[in-house]
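Known limitations

Files may contain more than one protein. Parsers should not assume a single record per file. Below, a two-record file is shown to illustrate correct handling: read the sequence, read the token line, then continue until end of file.
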Amino acid sequence: MRLAGSRVLMMLSSSDTRQSVLESGVLCKWFSKVANWEPGIEIGNKRAWLSVSEIRLHVWLRGTFDNITSIWGTLILSDDLTLVPNSFERGHILIETYKLECINELVVLHVQGLTCRVRVVEFEPSLEEQSCSLCERAYGFKLDCD
């Protein structure tokens, strides 16, 4: 199960099973670091949905969202309506960031020789608002949407 950000917690049925899995080395193929749980482990990063608004139409580009993402972390995905919008009111992106405080900022961007100010606000989407495919891509599980 995902703890937060890129941290994953695996619970195994017994300490013998844990030892066997660790000794097999199979986890090293999937994870950059494997360690036993300790109560003092800090998460350190998180996934955050950002709502980006006040973007000028002529700079509604993938590169603009990449620039915004790079301020706080790395892009995981953009929602379907951000990439192919039916409205230019706002775009939504999911990032992984080490900024644990809530993001709510006015950002100055330089895009195609222009200076633009955009509003970036972290939000927690309700599951009803998300499409099944978006949930599956963002969180690694599929909801029963019927």
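...continuing to the second record:
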Amino acid sequence: MEILEFIPVESVLDIYDINGNLVKQGDEVVTSIILHNDSTESLSTFEGKKKLFLHFRKERDVVFMKKCKDLYAKKDPLLSCEACGFSFQKAYGDIGKSFIEGHHTKPISGLTRETKISIDDIKMVCSNCHSMIHSKYPCYTIEEIKKLITENLSNVR
């Protein structure tokens, strides 16, 4: 196996705020508060720096997921979330058409080797429910999310 050696290359760039104060020198942030002419503070930071990451990533089959979504659309043309019932198409019109996320009920992160996944292992959920499902490990189930929604919405006046 060939071993690759990576040499980090950084560009050195000094950044000044609108008052001419040095706020970033190379990779070192001098201050993250930028003072404006009217002396009011504004919270700011620097983002967008390019970094090279080298790691393993588990493959997902995008063609399989598209087929799952297409089959689900035959059952539910509005592609309603299986957890909360939200439909992007109903809420946003044409720009929401065909928008839904496929959730693996067998978490890919937990697989130790390539594993056969069937359509029964996929649930169609909206972005919010998908985020809530993955907000803990192990993930919430669809049934647990439905229960949370029901319980919490009953408390809304």
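Parsers that stop after the first record will miss the second one. For reference, the second record is described as follows. The chain has two domains: 1-55, 62-154.
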